UniProtKB/TrEMBL annotation:
Its main location: membrane. It is found in: Membrane. GO terms for cellular component: neuromuscular junction; synaptic vesicle membrane. Residues 21-173 form the MARVEL domain. The chain crosses the membrane at residues 31-50, 70-88, 109-130, 150-169. This is Synaptogyrin. Residues 195-218 have a biased composition (Polar residues). Keywords: Membrane, Transmembrane, Transmembrane helix. It is a multi-pass membrane protein.
């Protein structure tokens, strides 16, 4: 257990190796989620609206503005959340308090699980609206590639965010073993060291108690009288 701290992170004050951090499965999933969220957001914002012979723009998903708005919302918030949790992962080992670490992990578990569900809704919602879109609504097939990209990467985001949820739950379960930390770590303070003993290293001193008779026992004995002989 050397070098392992609470909730799956290194011990407080340990140095962070950027290469090792980049190779962690959680970091890879975080980067992929960031990319997928960017694709969903950018696809709808850039090409998700088409002009149908008027100045008003219509959503490519069956002219349903709610579908485009929902996709933009999920992609944008997911993008910002990935950036936040990426920094939190990098600074996690510097958090000295076990209580603060637990709060961070619980936040990650709750958000990752919730965003997995929202991306599942996004995939189903966008796929359903796209299936109802007729070719007449998209002249020259405008925005079709962007719509397919948003649907596909919403599906990929379900996988990556679910993986992040599993990793967060694993870190939370690792943090239940509190034997690695003392009570001082619970309050964020440094552990106190006991006073050094004067005994040589490796030598154990044993205290033995010897029985001592009560004082004046011999003096309190009755004196003997000897009869003089004439």
């Amino acid at each position: 257990m050397d070098g392992v701290g609470s909730f799956g992170a290194g011990r407080t004050g340990s140095s962070i190796d950027p290469i090792t951090f980049a190779k962690q499965p959680q970091t890879i999933l975080r980067v992929l989620s960031w990319i997928f969220s960017l694709v969903v957001f950018a696809s709808i914002v850039n090409e998700g609206y088409v002009n149908m012979g008027s100045e008003r723009l219509h959503c490519v998903f069956n002219k349903n503005a709610d579908a485009c708005n929902y996709g933009v919302f999920v992609g944008l918030v997911g993008l910002l959340a990935c950036s936040f949790f990426f920094l939190l992962d990098y600074k996690f080992s510097s958090i000295s308090s076990v209580k603060d670490r637990k709060k961070a992990i619980m936040l990650e578990v709750g958000f990752s699980g919730f965003w997995t569900f929202l991306y599942f809704v996004s995939f189903c919602f966008l796929a359903n609206q796209w299936s109802q879109t007729t070719p007449d609504e998209l002249p020259l097939n405008a925005g079709a590639d962007a719509a397919r990209a948003a649907i596909a990467f919403s599906f990929f985001s379900i996988i990556t965010w679910a993986g992040l949820t599993v990793r967060a739950v694993q870190k939370y379960l690792l943090g239940t073993d509190m034997t690695l930390f003392t009570t001082e770590h619970m309050d964020g303070g440094a552990p106190t060291q006991p006073y050094p003993s004067n005994s040589p290293v490796g030598v154990t001193t044993e205290t033995t108690e010897t029985y001592q008779s009560p004082p004046f026992t011999e003096n309190n004995a009755a004196p003997t009288y000897q009869v003089p002989i004439y």
